[in-house]
Amino acid sequence: MKTVIWVVCFETPNKLGDYCKQILYKASKLITKNDVTVSAVCIGDYEPGKLQALSKYGADKVIFSQEVCSNYRQVASILFHMYQSENDSPNLIMFLASEWGKCIAADLAVRVGAGLIAECIDIKAQKENNKYKFIFTRSAVASTVLAQIYCKNTKLSMCTCKKNVFMGIDAYPFKHISVQSWYGNYREKTQPWRIIKSELQVYESTNVELETARLVFGIGRGVCNKNDLIEIRQAAGKYNAAIVCTRAIVEEGILEKERQVGQSGISISPEMYIAIGISGAVQHMVGIKKVKKIIAINTDESAPIFSYADYCIIDDYKNIIREL
Known about the structure:
Order of helices and strands: EHEHEHEHEEEEEEEHEHEHEEH
Oligomer: single chain
Radius of gyration: 22 Å
Number of helices: 8
Strand content: 25-35%
Shape: elongated
Number of strands: 15
Structural class: alpha/beta
């Protein structure tokens, strides 16, 4: 019997982007093709041609509900009823670690009693007694170590996968695959709710998109305040570079959360990464493991970042930035 993997292609309502394709491609590579069926589970108003195109990223089948959902509980409810009605129930369900994906995964895991591993940066399949066990890698112990985890005493494993950690989408040849429309009564009584607090968060945005940037400047605790950021922005502007940061910089209010790189943030894969005042903690390095070249600037010659960097500069970053 084949192992069945579901990839829930739901980043935000009605969006099928590169993030979904990354996870699909990873799923297709976990197990020998003859031993696995990878199903893309899509919920939303999509054209059939767009769903068929998912075959190019490893989907063997599409399970499709045309329902347009306004909250994550609706999506989780549809998935739960899909899971109960399918003859070939999945052994693994993979979700995107987007805000929607994390909420949907947590809700569904409670409903079906499955193990859920969050924020995975790698997955491997290990065959035991003609069955596959999935081993998930993520950071643990306050992001100081990388742990390998598997779900015990449950048939179903579930995980959320970080963005841009499964790269190298070498598309398969297009093929016609089954697009199975799903209809069911999934309606639930909604709980009454009210808005407790509403506020507008205004962040200073950056002009260069991280998705396309070939050069990225990363700033860490060594960059003390917003005034120091002005010179870094000017240097980045000269080279059309994007700017990201560590968690400490977000907590200081210097950059917005969307620019945080690491285990609790995003992952990036530019051609070159210039790390400015970054110590090199494990939780940050997880987010830049796909970077091609790293240049580290730090006054501390024993900073862990230097053991990862291709080029090391022991100096005050201000001296370097002003020369760029």
